[in-house]
Design a protein that fits this description.
This is lipoate--protein ligase. Pathway: Protein modification; protein lipoylation via exogenous pathway; protein N(6)-(lipoyl)lysine from lipoate: step 1/2; Protein modification; protein lipoylation via exogenous pathway; protein N(6)-(lipoyl)lysine from lipoate: step 2/2. Keywords: ATP-binding, Ligase, Nucleotide-binding, Transferase. Its EC number is 6.3.1.20. Strands 7-8-9-10-6-2-1-11 form an eight-stranded mixed beta sheet, sandwiched between helices. A three-stranded mixed beta sheet has the order 4-3-5. Strands 12-13-14 form a three-stranded antiparallel beta sheet. It contains 13 helices and 14 strands. It has two domains: about 240 residues, Bira Bifunctional Protein, Domain 2 (BirA Bifunctional Protein, domain 2), CATH 3.30.930.10; about 90 residues, CO dehydrogenase flavoprotein, C-terminal domain (Enolase-like, domain 1, 2-Layer Sandwich), CATH 3.30.390. The longest helix is centred in the middle third of the chain and has 16 residues. Strand 7 and strand 8 form a beta hairpin.
């Protein structure tokens, strides 16, 4: 039961530090406390934990223009951040984690500004069918977070320039470009400001949870521990991941997301694996890579490895709109991809 609300905002716009503070608070959130964390990144592309940065973003172009590539802990797809965008994170213990209630805070805040926002799909908030907020989720031990964007006056030209969004993904959304799919709140309320959106979020946070929120200062966090986490997020290994010499590749988009599997095979045995995905569940695909490494390069062996991925690898059991749980559907889809690829 939540008995304490805390909110914190930071003026820092260095993305690796912002993610470090987010992770630290998630690892140490007290039982019964819910934290609303407000933050901004400057000139940044943020990719999901399991994504191939070279596929999702024009990395060289971004870095030539002094931008930042960031890999977050949560799953999902790539997004562009600038100072026309506000990020929020709800941080709470697993027993009090309630995505629907958390989304209500965003919906109520935006509606209080005279903009009719709606939740659509798995993780988007829209106005008139156009997305201004994408959301993603993460759990570690007893701590969880739910974070997302709020596009206020983001530069959609840069968004289109830096992000490589597949034509297949755009078609699945019924649009032809990134710009046509997303909207800034200023398109619906021209005089909207960053500060009034922040204030509306804090007020809605208190209303939805039925108690006042206490402000926490960034200086209250242990700076040395934040520094260590900042270095992790800024490291080459974390940002770019591994490139492997692969001989075989299979890729397909499903309703739950895109999957790309690269296999390095020697003497009929899978020696190395990369699994990339923009699916929301970030743990499953790391578990899949571990199962595939060392198994035979044969349809039967690979399908058995997929089936062996245990239920613990799935963070949350979402349903697909049928009687088939999300975990089962993902496994069946991957096995079907293996059968058609080999």
């Amino acid at each position: 039961m939540i008995n304490r609300l805390v909110w914190m905002e930071t003026d820092n716009t260095y993305p690796y530090r912002n993610l470090a503070m987010e992770e630290y608070m998630t690892l140490h959130v007290p039982q019964g406390t819910c934290i609303l964390y407000l933050w901004q990144n400057r000139h940044t592309v943020v990719i999901g934990k399991n994504q191939n940065c070279w596929r999702e973003c024009r990395v060289n172009f971004l870095e030539q223009e002094d931008g930042y590539l960031v890999r977050r802990l949560s799953g999902g797809g790539a997004v562009f951040h600038d100072l026309g965008n506000l990020n929020f994170t709800f941080i709470v213990g697993a027993e009090d984690y309630d995505v629907s209630r958390q989304l209500d805070v965003i919906l109520e805040a935006v509606r209080s500004l005279g903009i009719h926002a709606e939740k659509t799909g798995r993780n988007d908030i829209t106005v008139e069918g156009r997305k201004f907020s994408g959301n993603a989720f993460y759990r570690t031990g007893d701590g969880c977070y739910h974070h997302g964007t709020i596009l206020i006056r983001a530069d959609k030209e840069n968004m289109s320039r830096y992000l490589n969004v597949s034509k297949e993904k755009l078609a699945s959304k019924g649009v032809t470009s990134v710009k046509s799919r997303v909207a800034n709140l200023c398109e619906f309320k021209p005089d909207i400001t960053l500060e009034e959106v922040k204030a509306a979020l804090v007020e809605a946070f208190s209303r939805v949870y039925g108690q006042p929120a206490v402000r926490m200062k960034e200086e209250e966090l242990p700076q040395l521990e934040i520094d260590v986490l900042t270095e992790k997020f800024a490291s080459w290994q974390w940002k770019y991941g591994r490139k492997i010499p692969f001989e075989y590749e299979m890729e397909k988009r499903f309703p739950w997301g895109n999957i790309q599997i690269q296999l390095h095979v020697d003497e009929g045995v899978i020696q190395d694996v990369n699994v990339f995905s923009d699916a929301m569940d970030q743990e499953m695909f790391g578990a899949l890579a571990k199962q595939l490494k060392g198994c035979g390069y044969a349809e039967e062996d690979i399908c058995a490895a997929v089936e062996a991925v245990g239920p613990d690898a799935f963070q949350a059991e979402e349903h697909t709109g049928t009687d088939v749980p999300q975990s089962r559907q993902i496994k069946e889809d991957i096995k079907a991809l293996v059968r058609e690829s080999l």
